[in-house]
Structure prediction request, 598 residues.
Amino acid sequence: MSESLVGVIEPATRQNAGRAEKVVPSGAVNGPAGTETAAVMVVLGSERPARFSQVAAVSHPHAPARASHRRRAVIILDVQSSAGWVEEQAALLRQAAGLYNVPVRLSYLCGLAAVCGLAFAAPQGTAFNARDNGAKGDGKTDDTAALQKIIDDAGARGGGTAYVPPGDYAIRPIELRSGVTLYLEAGATLIASGNLADYPLETQQREGESARVGLITVRHCHNVTIAGHGAIEGSGLLFVDATRVKTADDSDLKYTRQGADFMNPKFGTQDGPWVPVRDRPGNLLRVMDSEDFELTGVTVRNSPAWTCEMYHSRNINIHHARIHSLTSNLHVPNDDGIDVNGCERVHISDMDIQTGDDCIALFSGNNITVANSTLRSRSAGVRIGYYAGTLRDVVINNVVIDDSNRGINLNVRNGNVVESVLLSNITIHTRLITGQWWGKGEPIVVTAMVNPRNPGTVGAIHGVHFRDIRIDSEAGVLIYGERPGMIEDLGFDGIHERIHKGPLEESYGGNFDLRGNTRPELALFGHDIPAWFAHGVTGLALHDVGVEWEGGLPPFYTHAVEIEDSKDIDLRNVRGKAARPGIEPMLFERCEGVRSTQ
Prediction:
């Protein structure tokens, strides 16, 4: 049997759903030729469910309601094929409900697991099946027209579900419509075209690593959902050269500790990044100038550029989904998981994201939350800020960042402002990696640099606080404000950091990485590595901070805390020795207003 749409007469409460756990297929009953349906079940109040072997039996139920019970029915019916057939069954469901004198609200769910609370319900409305409209799902036939048709038909009806049953659907770019849910059933995969000519230039202003359209676009829409347990395959490996590794073309190696030997392939190329081809498609999923968008349940994988871009939109909910580049082993550059630019009221939660580039990049916007997620990246687990725009009122909580290059990367580079950001309950595991990726194993980076091309526009970071963070890394926390006042009111409370040895410390270690500015002497350069380094900060608080070093580290690992050219520094219960004997645990140079208490 192939599970597909399920009609439910409400109230389909979790308690009633629990009674449906033992619903099993019962043979062919009144369904389209060659299909099977599940048994029909009626749940009456607190009574045990009655099962029926035929759809027709709904009209003559064997379990009449008792007057002593509140008459509420849940009737579950597995249906497949056309929207017309679904509507016929809906009429039967309403007829049965009428016999019980119960209110009716019809909704559609996908798969019997949905009845047991294990799947995501699609919104109420008419369902349009891709197979009924010519889609083959064989991985070879171009199914673009069939998918776009059911999306357009659902939108024209004022909303509905564009249902994609199991199969592999080769498609070119598509656009969603207001009120439409694109539901990918378990086993359904949308496979992006590998032909660059299928991706025309994007006509609307936006951001990203490509000027072309992406696979799925939501443009000037409201109330759009992508849901289910299927997958969106971006075919990203077709747009990189896996035989070559990207080298340092954005820095002058003479400033590094290793000089010309820095990033030498003799030290390994196992972390990539691979070289992208000259041009590639745009974002795998792009939401532009839209409102009330939801992504849930699906797997989005192997994007050729940024995976999911949220651009100038509001009320965004992304949850209980997977985004990854595991096929390439995280070797594809610029394949960020989720990018947020100019959006408000964005909620990201319960995600598993594993990408070569940043897992989550919050460039600008407000009222943004990130929670209950696991992240893994060859760049940063979470990037905050970077270029033009203001980012404020952000809360990040209950996050695990594992096996990554950087943990949290908070920076400004081109006059942008980051303010009012809270980060808490985070574990961070970072390491040095090979290749051109930005970052050198830092668990936390907070940097504000002036763009020499626009020196009159100076960005700022203020009101950022970290609390209850556990760190295991091969580098220290790096805080760097190029000019006074660019970083203000920065707090850390309850941070425990352990710095350990790694196989690349001699070949890649002992450098600060501030790339993203055009001054080569301040982009990638040699520097000793304390556990905590701060430069140019006003109002720095380190409270309840612990530092632990593994033995046998190279001599460029130094102090527990090193702060320079900063003022208004408050240290309370900061614990930890230097990395080796003979040097001070704490070093302050050209600082004002330092307060230290245990």
In short: The helical segments are 14-19, 83-100, 112-115, 144-156, 505-508. Residues 1-83, 100-124 have pLDDT under 50 and may be disordered.
